[in-house]
Design goal:
Layout: E1 2-7, E2 10-15, E3 18-21, H1 38-47, H2 74-83, E4 87-91, E5 94-97, E6 115-118, E7 133-136, E8 142-145
Parallel strand pairs: 5-6, 6-7
Antiparallel strand pairs: 1-2, 2-3, 4-5, 7-8
Helix pairs in contact: 1-2
Length: 164
């Protein structure tokens, strides 16, 4: 099991009791032209080692209508939104919203929660961001989110000391 830890503003992970550089988790095999950040893909693979399966919806038996995800859950959804150009990673665990999208990825709770930075000219998705926090790009003040999990202000010009 790996645990991501932040100490003195520097993220790293513990593996078998030893500190390891966070960049060891980064994906090194992204396709050329991918807009996803290697850190996000690496953390996705840590949380979801089997990836995401694309099922034939017609073959699923259910008492309710089966629908395809508009936005995939958790880190898979962050990757999807980056590939579509809606998000970009600006620093560890923090994503800038570049353009409007319909919904936040589901399951961004606890250790999977992230920070979003919302520019003034982009509309806020109307779906619950889980424990993730949303901050105003110009002021850094919290706009929305699970307030007990969020700082009231995010210093958007500084961040954790991870390379791009």
């Amino acid at each position: 099991m790996r645990y991501i830890v932040i100490e003195e503003g520097i993220p790293y992970f513990l593996y078998k009791g030893k500190k390891r550089d966070i960049k060891e988790l980064w994906a090194k095999d992204l396709p050329k032209g991918s807009k996803a950040h290697p850190e996000t893909v690496g953390i996705f693979r840590q949380f979801t080692p089997d990836g995401v399966a694309n099922l034939n919806h017609a073959s699923i038996v259910s008492s309710k209508e089966v629908e395809k995800y508009q936005t995939l859950p958790s880190y898979a959804g962050l990757i999807q939104l980056m590939e579509e150009g809606h998000l970009e990673r600006v620093k560890y665990n923090t994503y800038r919203i570049n353009s409007a999208f319909d919904r936040f990825p589901a399951e961004l709770f606890g250790g999977r929660s992230v920070n979003f930075i919302l520019p003034e000219d982009v509309s806020l998705p109307q779906v619950d961001p889980g424990h993730s926090c949303i901050y105003h790009a110009e002021t850094g003040k919290q706009i929305e989110g699970a307030s007990e999990h969020c700082d009231s202000q995010l210093d958007i010009n500084s961040g954790l000391k991870t390379p791009n």
